[in-house]
Amino acid sequence: MPSYDVMPNMELYQPVRVEDALDIASRYADRGWLVGGGQDTYGWLKDRAKSADALIDLSAIESLRGVRETAEGLEIGALTTLTEIAENALIKQRYALLADAASVVASPQIRNIGTIGGNVSQDVRCWYYRRGLSCYRAGGNLCYADTPQGMNREHSLFETSRCVAASASDTAPALVALDATMVLRSVNGERTLPASEYFVGPAVNIESTTALRDGEILTAVRLPTEWANATFYFEKVADRNVWDFSLVNVAAAFKVSGGSISDSRVVVGAVQATPRRLTAIENAIRGKAKDEATAASVAGIASEGARELAHNGFKIPLMENLVKRAIST
Amino acid sequence: MNLQLTRRRFIKGVIFSGAAATTGTGAYLAANAQSGNGGAERLISLSINGRTRRVDVPPTETLANTLRYRLNLTGTKIGCNRGECGACTVLIDGVPNYACSVLTHNVKTKDIVSIEGVKSADGTLHAVQQAFIAENAPQCGFCTPGQVLSAVALLNNNPRPTKAEAAKAMSGNLCRCGAYEHYLNGVLRASGQIA
């Protein structure tokens, strides 16, 4: 009988250069576990719900930390902590949406060590899955949450495919709204993906929430100047203001010129396994004033196509109202 | 019995990383899964409450376990052991963190302050501790060490916080007796805003 107080013993690598980390990650492939701040890792290991042969601790790689200004915008190292992002002057000044999102993740202590890379790569929050049950996402052939007795209050309204778990990242919708680019490295080189393609749902890959392949490391997030200094709105609704994951969150960016919205990004989190970009809303409000009348005129569009489970129907009016507030505030 | 295996795997790890062990760069393989107690690489130095402590730590041990069960610093409480309560809060380079959710091998180069290191050398309680007593903040007392460290870190960065700032800084520490107001008043008292 294992003690759930401690983690099982395993190899621990603590590379200080990203090249070394990539070598180790490549060698261990799916049996290596990348750790940034570890806040989504240690629970899995203590609970024996997942295992690995080696932990690859990236936290000593200084080149993956910090915020740099580039010709195209800002580059944020994947190991930059959420506190650093919430307090960074450049991010607060130009991309307050991301600073706002980072500032409401979990608790102060978790933000002090939790990283942006980890926050966008965290696994879904479904307690059946996290309990170690053999559900679809864990390789089994059953969903415990989408049953008449299943507890699915936190689960998805959209794009479910066998698994109904939702992503609860607060920074992920903000990155999609800012048209961020994710930088992924492996021993074979670097590739980049738009944030919208970094996040994958269960229909694409039921065992992973991201497009990261075995041996790949998310090294940075790039924010383009395109959405710098736009009009932003972020709001998170959770049971408690601290610790709890979003029941629904909204991250929106608006370019307002001459009193009307020329372009926008409206992204809702925690309603499916990936951030949900509402292009129908964006199209419907283009050219209109950013006010209550416009918000009222698009009522119902945000939640179109939602399929509610037994206990998560409240998320439909919640997301409708958050989108309404984002447009009217 | 695993000493050789340990050494071989350790060297393999270092060579694999492409860096010579003598340079001090490259991957550091903290320890081996199969080693019993005492591969040399598990013996590390920690700076805790201003003292250097040599301790033998398995690779996946959390700082909370090392403090409590190897160094007998049992003032750090383990409540949930999942980063959801704050009882194990310690300062790592002055920043509050959950000791239950940090690997000890991650803090080898850091300065750690646990509740035992908050009072001054002559035993005088820290202003935060005195203020918490004055406000009757601790009831059962289990969350108190964590509350003290969160408050100390706050006042080091922001000597005169507003009540809202204090509430935000203390929000990662649960108190199941519900003495939040008393702790917040304690923070304000320690900062000289309540006499």
Describe this structure in words.
The complex is a heterodimer of chains A (329) and B (195). Chain A is an alpha+beta fold. In chain A, 27% of the residues lie in helices and 21% in strands. Chain A contains 13 helices and 12 strands. Chain A has helices spanning 18-28, 42-46, 82-87, 89-94, 96-102, 108-113, 116-121, 127-130, 171-177, 195-198, 279-285, 292-297, 315-328, and strands at residues 11-13, 32-35, 54-57, 67-70, 73-77, 181-186, 189-194, 217-224, 231-237, 248-257, 260-269, 276-277. Chain B starts with a helix and ends in a 5-residue tail after the last helix. Chain B is globular, with a radius of gyration of 20 Å. Chain B contains 6 helices and 6 strands, in the order αβββαβββαααα. Mean pLDDT of chain B is 85; it is low at 1-26 and 31-40. In chain B, β4 (89-92) and β5 (95-98) form a beta hairpin. Chain B is of the alpha+beta class and 195 residues long. Chain B is 32% helix and 13% strand. In chain B, α3 (127-134) crosses α6 (180-190). Chain B has a 5-stranded mixed sheet with strand order 3-2-6-4-5, with helices on both faces. Chain A binds chain B through residues 5-17, 19-21, 23-24, 27, 38-39, 42-43, 45-46, 53, 55, 57, 59-60, 106-110, 112-113, 241-243, and chain B through 9, 13, 16-19, 25-33, 58-62, 65, 78, 81-84, 86, 89, 95-98, 100-103, 105-106, 150, 168-169, 171-172. β1 (11-13) of chain A pairs antiparallel with β1 (29-31) of chain B, so a sheet runs across the interface.
